[in-house]
Amino acid sequence: MENPLRLNRDSEYRSSVIYDVEYTKGANQLSYVEEGFINHPIMQHILSTNIAILGERLVKGYRYSIDIHQFRVKALSGKESPTTSGIHQDGQEWIFMHFIQGNNIAPVISEVHVSSDEAPPLLQTAMTQFLETLAIDDKQLYHRASNVRQISPTSEAFRDLLLVTFRQSPE
User: Using CA atoms, how far apart are residues 68 and 30, in angstroms rounded to an integer?
Assistant: First the structure.
């Protein structure tokens, strides 16, 4: 197979999962990623590292779509901002959660679970280092993250993540 991986450039991405989180339509302003971002050596290294980590877990004979989501969760005026909608799956094969940066935030705890139950998680961690990463088998495991909370209510607070997801796609 010549190229079993395909980058999804659809800025109208529609998740196969509905999240139970307060959401204002139009709050997320999506656009195509600039070629400079995709072709940047750091992004290319992230992608090649993710692919190498998956290795044989990428089933031969299938094509995979790679979706890249860069997002910022903000907390303003002393209010908490939800990062996720509780313990969930995203409807992907694999999810790589790459921490980019945080500003004026209390630790955001990322959790990995074996089910959607509130049982103790397999893993709890606060990602704080640039490109610190969690890799999740989204068909087998569940995940969530705690809310973004400001340390000082007078300063901007945010958490930036880069998600790289892999899912089997039709040929």
Answer: 11
CB count in 10 Å sphere of residue 98: 21
d(CA 135, CA 54): 9
Alpha-carbon gap, residue 44 to 37, rounded angstroms: 9
DSSP 8-state assignment for residue 33: P
Residue 102 and residue 150: Cα distance in Å, rounded? 10
State residue 26's pLDDT score. 47
Higher-confidence residue of 102 and 65: namely: 102
Is 136 exposed, middle or buried (CB count within 10 Å of its CB: 0-12, 13-18, 19+)?
buried
pLDDT over 70 percentage in the chain: 78
Residue with tokens 């640039």: 130
Rounded to whole angstroms, the Cα distance separating 57 from 52 reads 10
